[in-house]
UniProtKB/TrEMBL annotation, chains A, B:
This is LacI family transcriptional regulator. InterPro entries: HTH_LacI, LacI/GalR-like_sensor, Lambda_DNA-bd_dom_sf, Peripla_BP_I. Residues 2-56 form the HTH lacI-type domain. It comes from the Bacteria. It comes from Antribacter soli. Keywords: DNA-binding, Transcription, Transcription regulation. Pfam families: LacI, Peripla_BP_3. The keyword Transcription regulation applies.
Length: 334, 334
DNA sequence: ATCCGGGATTTTAGCGTTAAACTAGGAGCA
DNA sequence: TGCTCCTAGTTTAACGCTAAAATCCCGGAT
């Protein structure tokens, strides 16, 4: 491996001068700089970032730690990356497997020290576990959990979004709306919040809330949703609307409805949550709640930068507003 | 920050003993070990991985460098992660923005040194640029480009897959099949390969190859595909089949066909490539070419481990087999 | 001629860890 | 007794870089 001292010897200068040329931290005379750069080129030197990090105490890298790499998180990550890069830092993704043990490990202060800041999407950690995380490292939490007050935190307006989607279908004429993927007790606080919004919409409309219409899914995927909804159809429970707690769930619902010969939106209205790209392309277009990924990404990065600049700043808790996007899967709107 | 020497002082031992307890590299007497662990606990010590990396020369981390975090790459990444973790290493994702400059930067040896091995998904680098990458770091290339022989490389059987999908639609009765998203000259070698497979299928069936049926997309997305296909419909060019070079493109096609009142598969058959999750749920199910993500992930990790174990091993070039998955968007099969 | 200011460059001193060499203190054995 | 061997622990010397302090050198002011 070529080190800085190799370059220094080749250029006939001290190691520190090489460092100064490369990092532009202190002025270096033009002829010297040229000789150093020539030596760098000749030897193919690349600075050892690990050594730089150890010495300089920063890594110029931010981590986004997510439960899984695909779908929702991939899309958000692609929004966050340019914002982080705009500040001259790198973004890397790490994964927790939505598994409490792994999430704890990724959270170990050891791993955190590799980064100047961390955006942590909390999927599987409860408040107690988070409370045990004691580190001066700047952290911003993303996600729908309850979190200790001392953390910066961004969550979506889950209840409000679910209420909007459900109310919209009620206005469109649905009277028996399933809450697909919702739950009463769940590791995912999010599904509970969205169920509450679904209930609120019913109450506001003076409609009864029937527990049979809360349909949990066994595995949290399109496939799980498809199966769960096919079971409902088979059971004979009448319904004329489906509020899917996420668009991934809604996608499974689309498949199940088509297989059951139910037309969308004529027989059954359908609305999802997350406004994934896919939702606008699946005919007839899936009405969804747009969480404004870009806005969330901007808030997240803003909070993180603030925290990195001032460790003592008071923690900020943001509830990101959501917005109903009406498409062909519901009646009304366009 | 609590360091090892703080722990050593607290436990009344040398720093080296603390290191030995934590890394299990050399035996330590039981009472001493207990005292050290108590001190670690009491002070909340976490090892500084940067220092460990500098000294030990390894990071126990593998990077997967991809053009973007969502869709295809997210799915592959989720397959790769457990395989890397099974060997006691971490996986992190970095992004290149499918932009040659950024990809070059991520490839700079400087950044590579942070990892014990790198899986690089080559989207925007041509052979010459890759040829300039000189590093002893274990690298496995993933993707459809031509790459220098000295690199380990895994690519899909693009031509074969495109041929399979197209032939299948020809057997199903289509005679005028668009190659949507394909190209003659393209930064994405993949789209050219798949166009060739589309041509081959025509030749094998004794059908003419009409250049007007190769429809490029302006932006590589569902939206771009939707617009391109709507333009074709507006132009009046008759067609009865669409081979979409990726499922993301196919999804845009589904939307455009539905908007144009064309029925799938009755009026137009449709097939994609990649077999994304979404393809099995979009009614009537999108016929697609399954690249076997899991198999590709396994091969990738196997090659990387081999390369990490033996830097001098001869480079391996794998063409991963693909398989046609027939769904409702084409006639025939089930 | 001497001193001074200030930019250019070097020297010093680690950052926190671990590989390798070394020491202390027994146990085992002839 | 004296020697070797072993185990448990310590000391030493980096890994490759950079912050901070020290030094050098030259033109201009006194």
């Amino acid at each position: 491996m070529v080190t800085m001292s190799d370059v220094a010897r080749e250029a006939g200068v001290s190691v520190m001068t090489v460092s100064n040329v490369l990092s532009d931290r202190r002025p270096v005379g033009a002829p010297t700089r040229a000789r150093v750069l020539a030596a760098v080129e000749a030897l193919g030197f690349e600075v050892n970032l690990t050594a730089r990090h150890l010495r300089a105490g920063r890594t110029d890298t931010v981590a986004l730690i997510v439960p899984s790499f695909h779908d929702y998180f991939g899309e958000v990550a692609d929004e966050i990356a340019p914002l982080v890069e705009a500040e001259g830092r790198h973004l890397v993704l790490e994964r927790t497997s939505a598994n409490p043990e792994h999430e704890m490990e990724s959270l170990s202060v050891a791993r955190l020290q590799l980064y100047d800041g961390v955006l942590l999407s909390v999927a599987a950690l409860d408040r107690d576990q988070l409370d045990r995380v004691r580190t001066p490292k700047p952290i911003v939490l993303l996600g729908e959990h309850e979190v200790p007050d001392r953390f910066d935190h961004i969550k979506l307006a889950n209840e409000e979004g679910a209420r909007l989607a459900t109310s919209h279908m009620i206005e469109g004429g649905s009277r028996r709306i399933l809450a697909l993927g919702a739950a009463y007790e769940s590791a995912h606080k999010m599904t509970t919040d969205r169920r509450v919004g679904w209930e609120t919409a019913h109450r506001e409309a003076g409609l009864p809330v029937d527990e049979r219409y809360v349909v949990p899914v066994t595995t949290y995927s399109s496939q799980g949703a498809r199966e769960a909804l096919l079971d409902v159809v088979a059971s004979g429970l009448p319904f004329d609307g489906v509020f899917a707690v996420t668009d991934v769930i809604a996608l499974g619902a689309v498949a199940a409805l088509a297989e059951s010969g139910l037309r969308v939106p004529d027989d059954v209205q359908l609305a999802g949550f997350d406004n994934l790209d896919v939702s606008s392309f699946v005919p007839p277009g899936i009405t969804s709640i747009d969480p404004n990924h870009r806005g969330v990404a901007q808030d997240a990065v803003r909070l993180l930068h603030r925290r990195m600049a001032d460790a003592a700043a008071p923690a900020e808790h943001i509830v990101a507003p959501v917005r109903l996007v009406v498409r062909g899967s519901t009646r009304g709107g366009r």
